Prior knowledge:
The chain is α+β, with helices and mostly antiparallel strands. 36% of the residues lie in helices and 20% in strands.
Amino acid sequence: xxxxxxxxxxxxxxxxxxxxxxxxxxxxISDTEYDRLTDRLIELEREHPELQHPxxxxxxxxxxxxxxxPEVRHTIPVLSLDKAYSDEAVLDFFxxxxxxxxxxxxxxxxxxxxxxxxxxxxxxxxxxxxxTRGNGEVGNDVTPNILTIRSVPLSLPESIDIAVRGEVYxxxxxxxxxxxxxxDDAKKAANPRNLAAGTVRRQKSSEAGRVPLTIFCYEGxxxxxxxxxxxxxxxxxxxxxxxxxxxxxxxxxxxxxxEAERKLEDAGLEGDAYSxxxxxxxxxxxxxxxxxxxxxxxxxxxxxxxxxxxxxxGYTEHHPRWAIAYKFEAPQAEAxxxxxxxxxxxxxxxxxVAEITPTKLGGSTIRRAxxxxxxxxxxxxxxxxxxxSISKRGDVIPAVESVVEKNxxxxxxxxxxxxxxxxxxxxxxxxxxxxxPNYDCPDQVKGRISYFASADQMDIExxxxxxxxxxxxxxxxxRVEDIYTADYSLAADLPGIGEKSIRLLEKGIKESLxxxxxxxxxxxxVAEIGKKSAELLVRNGFDSIDKIxxxxxxxxxxxxxGIPGFxxxxxxxxxxxxxxxxxxATIEGLRKAGLHMDSSQDEKEDADYDQIFAGEVWCITGSxxxxxxxxxxxxxxxxRGGRTVSSVTxxxxxxxxxxxGGSKRAEAERLxxxxxxxxxFMALIGGGKxxxxxxxxxxLF
Length: 701
């Protein structure tokens, strides 16, 4: 038998043993024999690495090489979920969805695992990347550590391209055992989720492999949309047949329980069937069962089953409109309401904020909590001096939940002022919310400028909210477009701003002129147009500001509402926003300053660079002086015609290596890939073009 034949035989044999044991709990051979075969395969692969299979069982063992975790852009939506805190809110989501669709709908309900969200990317049936959720657009590639999780398939029985969302977690018993074995109390994890999160980011995958993480998968996105199943139940069924581990505690809701049972049976899935009227019963049942589960859950996720309806409903900036997460009662604490501050946002929305006695809750000290609006205050009959119950909604946002005891000072229910607390314009009511209608209200203006300059928008790094306030109060900035025409030498004597800070500010402003049109569009601050909405507009033909303005001139709301993920109300609001003379004045000011108002300008910007990297494939590792985050270096490659990848393969031509590069450098050396230092790279691109933060910033962030 040749070496290749022996490696092939051992690989297939061990894959069978692993699948049987980790998916069905069946041991086909003894542990000793299994270890002997594994050791033999490791030995052969070490001597002949070119013969190792991409889904070799030995990849479960991990490596002692140091890993780095590059940033990777997701190719599917990886968003958060809207929250509900009562069975009435879930039922309201059901009924509003059915009313919006105008027909019958069904809903799947799954446990919300308290773990780490992960996206598994497969190409031609082989696992090529495992990426954390990150900010929903960009996550970290943690593939080496995820490969050690036995319940993650390394290969699929079908040669398909698919992205699979799942939750990596650690069972309670395994967490207790690992913590008990840790002699140093300082190194013990606070809970299973923290230990799972730390393991996923271990520098050495051999260490990650010693922690028995597992995964439940719950969504699939096929590269070929024609292969996508018709509904969520059949997605789960297909994922199961492909070898993914799905949560067996599935529930399914329809208008009639019999119909729910039929649909579960049709998909070949086991689960509990309910009618819509049994929401309360189901939530109570899951709440009581929660403590007996072998893993932690912090809620339940309800999803529309029909995929066509999901596509029609689309997404907001933060969450899909076709799903909602019911959160179990959040931890609560008691505090005294000291006062209510009224804030004015960049859109003019008036928001009351509770000022409370410092209170420890969920590992942090809370001093302020949201009150939403006047209607919410009236529901609580909330008055200054009341003792209140506070929670962290979604374990993040502090909120006042109820009044525990009324005050003794005789204070009555708080009422928002009739006038804007900033500019004293009379407040107007729109729906359940209050707004200051004065577009030139100082708080709104400062909010718009800060939003425009923020890291998630135009990324003018030295222009934070406190600096904006200083410049506004000094009369240097009064409109968004002033950013590009202001005389910043007038700020030299302002506290915290000197000549060096002004130079950095001017450099940041100059760099922002390179931002693509889609970023400029989302930075205008139109309430209905965030980053994802801007991308949808550009993708659907509105690839210049003039096309958007033209449709607004025609009052053609349908041109926008017809875009998947938008709706009639969104279309109307976009037309209203771009019909504003003041917004148009800002747009013309920014156009005059040289900002991109057409996607074709983005292409021209790239064309201005010599295509010196055309035909080359670059990867990156380590940290850099001039590129933070380091993905900025990859952008320099792409602007010059090169292609960028997240891992080193035989097709990689160059590895840009910074400080602390680990396994990628070793792989590049093994494959003979050219390794380029940061200094060499700076020389190649001509220096001075790098996007650097510099060595100093304004002191006022």
